[in-house]
Amino acid sequence: MGSVTLWMQISLDGFAEGPDEAVHWPVVDEELCTEYLDELRSADLLLYGRRTYEILAAFWPTADLAPVSPFYVDFARFWRAAPKLVVSRTLRNPSWNTRVTGPDPIEEVRQRRAAGQDMVLFGGAETARSFMAHDLIDEFRLFVHPLLLGGGVPLFRSPVDTSGLQLVDVLTFDSAVVQMHYRQQACLMC
């Protein structure tokens, strides 16, 4: 059995998007990205919501042409080659080893998971909540940023039963971002 791990940037007050759908507030620096690049390499598939995919597709495919650091070269090459699946009803003809889900993205991900694929979900809050509602999140990697947005789109709209979650680890970065890694109890041996 494969797994789906949600990687989500959230504010200290729990918002995944700021007011007016602002998504450019997270501190995603080289230290943070370097920490998780090796883990991303082990995923069979990267899952995205449409908006998140479009943000990354506008930057990473050419980030190695005028690199700020060796990390940019490494990550850009990884991102272009990595298999990607976008949950969208409107995206057409994606590039960079990417395809769009069929008419039933939940069933498609269920089948991939049952077939043993390990997937990392970088969706927006709506995509993440849809996967959570269908019990498709096996692990949570929440990157909590040291800022209060005061409004926007929360990751969790309603109370969540956390009794089945086990804390795997907590990492603190120089930017004061804290990564909390939780795993569903049923997935302890994943």
From TrEMBL:
<dbReference type="InterPro" id="IPR002734">
    <property type="entry name" value="RibDG_C"/>
</dbReference>
<dbReference type="InterPro" id="IPR024072">
    <property type="entry name" value="DHFR-like_dom_sf"/>
</dbReference>
<dbReference type="InterPro" id="IPR050765">
    <property type="entry name" value="Riboflavin_Biosynth_HTPR"/>
</dbReference>
<feature type="domain" description="Bacterial bifunctional deaminase-reductase C-terminal">
    <location>
        <begin position="4"/>
        <end position="177"/>
    </location>
</feature>
<dbReference type="Pfam" id="PF01872">
    <property type="entry name" value="RibD_C"/>
</dbReference>
<protein>
    <submittedName>
        <fullName>Dihydrofolate reductase family protein</fullName>
    </submittedName>
</protein>
